[in-house]
Amino acid sequence: MLDQEIEASGGLTEAALTTVRVKVESPDFEEALRRIAQTGSAELSSISGNLAAMRHSAQAYGDTLVAGGRKLENATDPALQAELISRLTSATDAMVTKTQRLENQLAQSTAEIERLRAELERVSSESRTDPLTGLPNRKALQVYLDAQAARSLADRKPLTVMFCDIDHFKNFNDTWGHRLGDEVLRLVAHSLERQSTGLGFAARYGGEEFVVVLPGRDLEAASDIGEQFRDFVASRTLKVRRSSHAIGQVTMSLGIAQMRRDDTLEDLLERADAALYLAKQTGRNRVCTEIDLQDGKCARSA
């Protein structure tokens, strides 16, 4: 296994890679939701119980004031009057203490519920994020693609999908170990995220495969963007920092398809995947579109 730190030349340093590192271990989403739900239910029950107790105390306090007021109104003995006033004062003091205690308990419950809300948001975010690269995962991609497909059909605007696969990724793992393989994945993820900002949505699809969704871009525009992605990643060169040993160039093959009005998302993804396969079969490090499937060769290559 490679235990040296890795850096990428061309401006993408280890510090830049660090910005996309996230915890590899993430909590089980369903278990986290169950725990949050249980804690939230307990807090709500506590609030309900406290409010019920407060209503009971308020009713008792009100009854005490009414009864004491009547007795005080009819009392003529100064000693009895003083005793009644003392009882009413004690009842008021007790009510103030209970009210303050309830306010503190409600404040604690409010804080706990806010903490649970933040934890739920964090867990939900983790469920949509690939833990290795920090990119949205396949689940998040599906949600985004569903929404963009509906918008594309409604607005009659193009929508393209780009499959990106790291060339010879297995060689990196076999030669240098999985630590370097992980760094290659992070490098490509960071590159795609950086290059797609303002253009589309990049996600890790699985393994060494990524997907970029490009709303409002037709096949020709997406092909140009794909060339920019391919060229940017190919300009990165990994090397071992301590020895300055060059590991090699990282290249990608890309396949692009544009949504048709009668498409299902499965149809769209299948055509993009077929274009990717063609890019692999015809030499790698190139961009193929679904149009290239007709004659079996990519119009554009490195």
| Largest beta-sheet characterization | 6 strands, mixed
Measured by DSSP, the beta-strand proportion falls in: 5-15%
Distance between the termini: 32 Å
Form type: elongated
Strand order of the largest sheet: 3-4-2-7-8-9
Helix content: 55-70%
Mean pLDDT, rounded to whole units? Answer: 80
Structural class from helices and strands? alpha+beta
Pattern of helices and strands: EHHHHEHHEEHEEEHEE
- What's the number of helices? 8
According to CATH, the fold-level topology of the largest domain is Alpha-Beta Plaits
How many domains? The number is: 2
Considering the protein shown, what is the CATH homologous superfamily of the largest domain? Reverse transcriptase/Diguanylate cyclase domain
- Annotated CATH architecture of the largest domain: 2-Layer Sandwich
Compute the CA-based radius of gyration. 32 Å
Question: Using DSSP, what is the number of strands?
Answer: 9
Parts with pLDDT < 50 across at least 5 consecutive residues:
1-27
CATH class of the largest domain: Alpha Beta
Keywords: Coiled coil
GO biological process, one term: cell adhesion involved in single-species biofilm formation
Coiled coil: 99-126
Protein name: diguanylate cyclase
